[in-house]
Amino acid sequence: MLKKRLIFTLLVDGDNFVLSRNFNLQKVGDINWLLDNYNFSNVSNFIDELVVLNIRNKKKNFNNFCKILKKITKKIFIPIAAGGGINSVSDVKKLLRSGADKIVLNSMILEENQELIKIYKYIGKQSIIGSLDVKLLNKTYFVYNNNKNINQSELSEIFDKKKLNYIGEIYLNSIDKDGTGQGYDFQMLKNIKKNEIPIILAGGVGNWRHLLSGLENKKINAAATANLLNFIGNGFENARNNLFDKCDLAKW
Amino acid sequence: MKKRVTIIDYGMGNILSVKNAIDYLGYKNQVTNDYKIIRNSELLILPGVGSFRDAMREIKKFEIDKAIKESVNKKGKILGICLGMQLLALSSVEDGNCKGIGLVPGKIVKLESIIKKKIPHIGFNSIKTDYFKGLFNGLEKNNFFYFVHSYFFLPQKTKQFKFSYCEYGKKFVSSYESSNICGTQFHPEKSQSNGLKLIKNFLK
Known about the structure:
The complex is a heterodimer. Chain A is an alpha/beta fold. Chain A has helices spanning 31-37, 40-43, 58-73, 89-96, 107-111, 114-123, 155-160, 208-216, 235-246; strands at residues 5-13, 16-21, 24-30, 49-54, 80-83, 102-105, 128-137, 140-145, 150-154, 169-174, 199-202, 222-225. The longest helix of chain A is centred in the N-terminal third of the chain and has 16 residues, at 58-73. Chain B is an alpha/beta fold. Helices cover 25% and strands 33% of the residues of chain B.
C-alpha cells in the first residue's frame, strides 16, 4: 500500500540555511553546520523526502545553490526535490546534475509560459512540484507571487480552472502559519474540491502532533516542515517513532 | 576486484543521484554516452526521468540501444531504473506509439487507464514477490521502495523474467529480472537502505 510521506524542507539563502517566519528569514548555519553539527545524513534516515529551496537572490545565486545541493545530496538516498530560480530547461538540467530528482516551480506555474511547457516536456509532470504560497485576506485565500510581490489569484480559482496541467504534485504552503509553530492551516484545504494530484501540506508545524494532524487528513498525501530547529538532534527520529504507531508511514 | 559500473547518460534523468549511490557502495564507475564504452561494459545502469519518446530519440542518436544489446549478448548485466526500466520494453503508448529498446517483452501504458486514484503514483510503496534470490535478496521484510510515475510496464507472457508487483488501486509490475536484464519501476537509489541493498544485489 502507498504510504503517506514526511517531508523536510531546507531553505537556502546564499550560503546559509535559514528559518522562515511569515516569510521573514533568520540565518541558522552554513553547509558545514548542516552536515557536521546537524548530522544531516542521520536525519535523512527518518524522513521520506527532502525539498531544498533557493529562496532569495535566486538568479544571482543559482550556481552556488547547485554547489550546496551537491554537498547535501552526496550521501543521502532519499528523493530530493529542488527549486527556486528555475527559468529554463537548462536550469532543470543543472539541478538534476547536482543531485535533484524532482523540481519545484513556483511563480512559473501561475504564469504558464512557454518555458513551463518546455520543462514539462523535458522532465514530465510526475517530477514537477508546483509550490503555492497561500495568504488569507478578508476571508479569501490568495496565492502570493513572490517574484512580483502581488496576490496573483484566488486559491479556489487555481484548483477550478485546470491551471495545474503541467504539475504532478502541489506543495501548499501557508504564509500566515509559516514558522509560527501553531500547526497547519486546514481551512485553506476547503478550496480543493477536485483532488486529482497528490498534495503536500506545509507551513506551521511546531511538533510531531502537527505532522500527525496533517498525515491524518484525507486530502493530504505528505506533511512537510521547514522548521530547522524544532526537530534538531534526534527530533525526526522521535517524531517518526511516534507517528509509526498512529499513522501509515513506510519502514526500511 | 569489483567491476566498474557504467552509468548511461543520454541527457535525461537524475544522473548524480544514481552515481552517488554507486560511489557509496564503493564501485568505480563512469557516466557516459560512448558507444564503445557501453558495448564493452559488464555492468550497466540505465537511469531516466522524463518522456519516453525524447529519451528514445537521444538513445538512437548515440546508438546506445545497439551498444546495450551488444553488451547484453556478451552476458553483460543491465539495470533500468524508472524510465530506464520502461525503455528496455518493446514499446510505449506515450505520445502515440513509440518503439523501445526491446529487450523485455511488454509495453508501457498509462496508469490512468487502469487506476482511479491520484496520479502520479508518488511515494513509498511495498512490493510483492515470492522470489527473494536476485534483486530482493535479504529484503523479505519492510520492502518499501520509492515510486514516482504516471506510466507502467504491462508484460507479455514470458518464462525468461521474474516479476515483482506493487499495488496502487490495481496490481502492476514494479520490477522484472532475468539472469542479466533487470528493471525497477521504483527508484532504488532513492529508497533509503532498502534501495542500496537492491543495487548491491544487482552489482554482485
